[in-house]
Design brief:
By secondary structure, the chain is an alpha+beta fold. It has three domains: 4-23 and 32-205, no CATH class; 213-322, no CATH class; 371-420, no CATH class. The chain has helices spanning 34-48, 60-63, 196-205, 215-218, 237-247, 249-262, 301-313, 333-349, 361-365, 389-404, 415-420, and strands spanning 4-10, 13-19, 23-27, 74-86, 91-101, 107-116, 136-144, 150-151, 154-155, 162-168, 171-177, 210-211, 222-223, 266-276, 279-288, 293-295, 321-325, 353-358, 374-380, 383-388. Strand 17 (321-325), helix 8 (333-349) and strand 18 (353-358) form a beta-alpha-beta unit. Helix 5 packs across helix 6 (249-262) and helix 7 packs parallel to helix 8 (333-349). The chain is globular and about 65 Å long.
Amino acid sequence: MIDTLIIKNFKSLKNVRFDLQKINLFIGPNNSGKTNVFKALEYLFHSILSDKTKIAIENLRRDYFSFGNKETTVFNEPISFIFCKKKEKSYNYYIVEFWGLNKNNQIIKREFIGETTQELPDDFSIGNWKESENLISTFTVQLFYSRGINFDSIHYNRLNNYSLILFRDKTATIVQTQSDTKGVNNLFDFENIDIEIAKFLRSISQNIRIYTPDPNQIKKPGLLGTDDFVNSDASNLVSFFDNMRDYQPEIFAEIKKDLTECLPEIKDIRFKKIKINNKISKQVVLFDVYNRGFLSDEVSEGILYFMALLAIVHQPSPPRLLMIEEPEKGIHPRRLHEIMHFIFELADKKDIQIMLTSHSPQVVNEFENFPETIFVFDNEKGETKVKNLLKDIIEPSDKKSDEKGFPKIDYTQTLGEHWIYGFLGGVPK
């Protein structure tokens, strides 16, 4: 699990920090930056750390908070990500700084992974590691297509070189490769990095996607394919189920088992063949305990949403970090409680970390006993500001009430209403 996430200089996220829990809720008005957190993580794992998506020069200004002059493709300050996992007596860190593209459109970045005796300051950067040397026990720094980056007395100014600096007990071992760096540009590939956060982030990088399951898409018959993954909107659920049943039956059996345990009225998942435009499609049919079959467009949206979530977490390469946008979309209000209960169960039983965005006071009410899991977003002059409900809103309010001898305000009672009426922030101005 990621305990702390800091993102700097991506879109509206100039400098935001999240002390994360197992499940986390992002609330705030439209365009306050909630989705940008998800997009930043996608950008990191799909583009900066991978060759899945090439970074286009024309998109750099769109993705960067403050670009600088119009001609350069190198940032004044990097887009940076700091991940921290707390251990009993130490802290695991992974930090990456993306500086833009060189003249050959190659990524300029530097990475840090290591273990520290204390928490690093929020303004820590790889370039000034020496200032926090007393906190660092073991770490590795990777430079990829470095551009005159200084590390104390170590200096590189080779535009198209890959450099790896291994620090063990403050002693540097330098590894360099020329020109072709394909296959070695991902720190997660190094077997000698035996740090827990690297393993967790490696698992995240394999299947990171923003999920917005759409019951209206799931209701429809689906064309058959070879899908062993679930689309962001779950529109390929029929094809996914069909392939799991035929080629990975143990996964399909787990999905059915979880569905019938959470929804005891459901007994089985089957399929009906349908011919559309001379092509064979299938539609999901759910059977109840009385052996009555119901097509997917005849069952509730809440049940379809449950199925989509189960498919997502049971994929052959399931996400360890599940990002879901607005689970209330397309769901009857009376079903929201069931869906949120199920999401909480998923986080607990499947050992996954979940981030949600929402505009629903009903969803917010489901978190009234867990104010530390809620992050309130606002947009101030184009910059995202984030407050943790417990640490930045409730605790300061309680302290102020104590100092003045006033009764404390119980924000968690009817929490959604307190938010909607503006007592917590995170509402349109």
